[in-house]
Write a structure and sequence with these properties.
Layout: H1 5-8, E1 13-19, E2 26-32, H2 37-45, E3 52-55, E4 71-74, E5 81-85, E6 90-94, H3 99-106, E7 111-112, H4 124-129, H5 137-140, E8 147-153, E9 159-162, H6 168-174, E10 183-190, E11 192-193, E12 198-206, H7 209-219, E13 225-230, E14 242-249, H8 257-260, H9 285-297, E15 302-308, H10 309-313, E16 331-338, H11 343-357, E17 365-369, E18 383-391, H12 395-410, E19 414-415, H13 425-431, H14 435-445, H15 454-458
Parallel strand pairs: 2-4, 3-4
Antiparallel strand pairs: 1-2, 5-6, 6-10, 7-11, 8-9, 8-10, 12-14, 12-15, 13-14, 13-17, 16-18, 16-19, 17-18
Length: about 475
């Protein structure tokens, strides 16, 4: 690369095909991996780079971290812990710090993230940009509610301090803003205090969806964390049969005597990796139906089980490259949330669609959501959310996913942008009523559209390059 001094200060780039974690979407991008803040600033400010987006550990299922024929900044080397206050639990760290590293460092000291998604392999910057939620949304909200402040490198080369009280409009556009307002170079988050590295868990089976919703309603106030595995292929009177898995952080007195000696010293299990792609026919309606039956039968009701935190929060992380279960064509994940007044009817229609289609989904998860946060593009809102995975079968799957998107829209629901690959600009604008407000803030802070992604162009968050 030749040119002015600013361009010459760029770290090496490479042209690379990047993929989503679920192996469904890919894009050919100019990839940069800065190791210092000044290198990051040079990349953002380079006039020869048309547009750019940040990518953390690449665990999103959507194209929000891809940028076809544009720049992608890998933030994984900008991963320093900057400060920690033991009295308040406030951690300041760079945007490339992984959630798993925070746990490894601070759980032995009695602290745990306030919110975690279903994997530990996400960066704090990526988690903020997607305003991730977890099993405790009904009680604690999404991650944005626990971010005290962040530093944002804007397209103009300025680093702005943002918080709920300082540049609040930009703060709430950045929380859940898919990296389109700038680069989150650092953030301050309040960790929660825990006494052990274990969870105290109750398991209850529900024979159908109505029973599951009733149990959620009657007992969720007892649990900080709550979710249900749901059999998406069951039909008739068993439609929506579920295994409810709910728990709280265990106290020292809850542990067996042997574990009380070192309650925070949870030994990480070895992580085997799936070495090859399974044949595409391995996951089909028959095999997944058998798996679902086995899972339901093997999880009888029980109370007060003590399990390590990682098996409760991150069961899929136990297998490296687990996406290979779906074959080389990968899979897609659909997640929608529905308002409480219509969620039962919407969930029934959604499950009936999936059951009739005989599309295999063994990672179906139902959760209760609390009130919506302030992030302009944040996904959660009060009601119920259902996440489903389906093997990629080509065009017929795309048609089916569009039908599910239409169903969500018809019931006043919304689709999670971090997992979407099929929404149109019109549907996104209807599902996210604050989208136009986001675009105005985006235009103000980034008038030339320096921060963009394949998803942002697809759903109309930024203009197309042709425009």
């Amino acid at each position: 690369m030749t040119g002015d001094r600013r361009e010459n200060s760029l770290p090496p780039r490479r042209i690379q095909s990047l993929r989503t974690w679920n192996n469904h979407l890919s894009a050919r991008c100019e990839v940069y991996r800065p190791e210092r803040l000044r290198e990051l600033e040079a990349i953002v400010g380079c006039p020869q780079l048309r547009d750019v987006i940040c990518r953390g550990l690449g665990r999103s299922y959507s194209d929000c971290h891809l940028n076809e024929a544009g720049g992608v900044i890998l933030q994984e080397r900008l991963d320093r812990m900057l400060s920690f206050d033991f009295s308040s639990g406030i951690l300041e760290c760079e945007g490339g710090v992984a959630l798993g590293d925070i746990i490894d460092c601070f759980l032995p000291r009695g602290f745990f993230p306030p919110v975690t998604p279903g994997t530990r392999f996400v960066t704090i910057g990526g988690a903020i940009a997607n305003d991730v939620h977890g099993k405790n949304h009904h009680r604690d909200g999404s991650l944005g509610a626990h971010i005290l402040s962040l530093s944002l490198l804007t397209a103009g080369g300025e680093t702005l301090q943002c918080s709920p009280t300082k540049n609040p409009d930009l703060f709430w556009a950045t929380v859940g803003g898919l990296g389109l307002t700038g680069v989150i170079t650092s953030a301050r988050v309040r960790l929660q205090h825990v006494s052990t590295g274990y969870m105290k868990v109750d398991i209850d089976r529900a024979p159908n969806l109505d029973a599951a919703l009733e149990q959620f309603s009657e007992t969720d106030e007892r649990y900080q964390y709550s979710m249900a595995w749901i059999d998406a292929l069951a039909g008739g009177g068993s439609l929506g049969r579920s295994v409810l898995i709910r728990g709280n952080h265990a106290e020292i007195e809850d542990l067996p005597a042997a574990q009380r000696r070192a309650p925070l010293a949870v030994r990480r299990r070895r992580r085997p990796s799936l070495p090859f792609y399974l044949p595409s026919f391995a996951l089909n309606a028959a095999s997944v139906r058998a798996f679902n039956q086995s899972y339901y039968v093997s999880h009888p009701d029980r109370t007060g089980s003590i399990v390590p935190y990682d098996s409760f929060f991150y069961p899929l992380d136990a297998i490296g490259n687990w996406y290979r279960l779906y074959g080389r064509r990968g899979f897609v994940q659909f997640q929608a949330v529905f308002p409480p007044e219509v969620s039962r009817r919407a969930l029934i229609e959604l499950l009936q669609e999936v059951s009739r289609s005989r599309r295999a989904s063994f990672l179906a998860v139902l959760k209760v959501m609390g009130p919506a946060g302030k992030g302009l593009l944040s996904f959660p809102m009060a009601g119920h959310t259902l996440a489903l995975d389906m093997a990629n079968t080509g065009r017929d799957l795309a048609v089916f996913m569009c039908r599910l998107n239409e169903l969500a829209l018809a019931h006043g629901g919304r689709v999670y942008l971090a997992k979407d690959a099929f929404l149109t600009a019109e549907a996104a604008a209807s599902m996210y009523p604050r989208l136009q407000r986001f675009r105005k803030i985006k235009m103000r802070i980034d008038p030339q559209g320096r921060f963009a992604s394949s998803m942002a162009r697809r759903i109309g968050l930024v203009e197309s390059r042709e425009a």
